[in-house]
Each structure stands twice: as C-alpha cells, then as structure tokens.
C-alpha cells in the first residue's frame, strides 16, 4: 500500500487496465466471418477453368501465327493436335518428313508439344485429334474444329480465319 507521505511513489492503475483482450463474442464473430470468406473464396481457387481457357487462347494464337508464317514464307505450315498437345511444323508433315518445328515467338522455344509453353496442355485439359495445313496463301487444307476442354477452336475452310 502506498501512502502519499512515504518515499515510495504511488502507481495508479488506469481504469481500462482490466479490459484488455477480446471478448468471447468478438472471437466467435471473427471465426464466423473467416468461415464465410473461406466458403466463398475456396471455390475460386480452382484454376482448372483458367488453365483450360489460357491453353485454348494459346493454341488459337499459335494457329494464327502458323497461318502468318505460311503466308510470309509462301510455304506450307502444318499444325497437329492430339495426345494432350499441339505441334506446329514448317512442312507438310509434322515432323515426320524432315519438317522443322516452328519457334514460339513469345518464348523462343520449339512448338513441339514437349512442355507447357511449347504446346503441352495443362493437366486435365483434353485436346481433340486434328491436323491441318496452311498453304502459302494462308488457306487451310480443310475447315477444322478443334475441341479443347469444353470449348472449340474453329478454322474456317476458305479463309483460314481462326476463331
């Protein structure tokens, strides 16, 4: 006990000193809010749809590039889809008769279907079997629909337009 007339200084206890921490109600509310956020955010962490969309767009861009290369070189460029990948070659066959794989201008690697960024599909993405060749005028040998996952890439027969 301290007395004002003694040499020991007095410490006063602030009135809020015993109110530190969280109440049980506050803790329960935080847990409920975190549970709701987790229930909403977790399904959005499934990236399979994003992987499929990105791969389909990559493949469509590769086909457009193949068409442009065929016109620029005035030669045949072939794209082969299947077995979970696509390959693009500067020849009639890919690459059976000495055809060379085209380089992906985005990363400088061959479009040989070996790894992602080279034509390999992400895990779980299905790629239908299809082969098409663009001639020196950018026309495909046939109109083609390529199924990637649940959606398609269509190449128009007369124009070679990729959509």
UniProtKB/TrEMBL annotation:
Gene Ontology CC: plasma membrane; type II protein secretion system complex
Main localization category: membrane
Entry keywords, A to Z: Cell inner membrane, Cell membrane, Membrane, Methylation, Transmembrane, Transmembrane helix
Membrane-traversing stretches: 21-42
InterPro entries membership: N_methyl_site (IPR012902), Pilin-like (IPR045584), T2SS_GspH (IPR022346)
Compartments in which it is found: Cell inner membrane
Domain (General secretion pathway GspH): residue spans on this chain: 58-149
Entry superkingdom: Bacteria
Keyword match Cytoplasm: no
Membrane-topology annotation of the record: Single-pass membrane protein
Biological process according to GO: protein secretion by the type II secretion system
Family per similarity comment: Belongs to the GSP H family.
Protein name, entry field: Type II secretion system protein H
Originating organism: Pseudothauera nasutitermitis
